[in-house]
């Protein structure tokens, strides 16, 4: 590791991911630049302080997992489970993300400037996810809370078995999953879309999006289910 007055540079050609994450868990600096990541897994996992981490290159599985307050940018593509179980903070991917982006995340903002693969936002529990491109099938499966904004198209079975998360899609939707329906877009929804798009740096008009959510038919008790 090398340091300047403002930035600590970590070169993964000579430093292990274990050493990197140990430093980020007890940081001595406020800004880290990670060089030569070469698709390594679990980069910047478990950050729990408001530091800034710039990963200059592609990341493997579970980059920025469990983030709780950090501002982490992957300047490239990210593998499976980026920002998985994030609690707070900001994670940004300037390229594309593989499957299960933002899985089970409780809070914070995940921005994917490119497209995301299948199961984006699976079981999300309060996170906000903004995708600049398309998302794959089974996205927002069992999504419990939070907002998923898709500036492109959505794959099949969007929002299958969804609870109370809200989904906004600018493009087409291949099909909706069980208990997911299109809903009215009111001014309150356009206002939150405007805020989310601004935070993500996306230039789109909130009026171009459609809203989807739960029909609330699956998770309510009825006497007919007592047999």
Automatic annotation (TrEMBL):
Signal peptide: none annotated. This is Glutamate synthase.
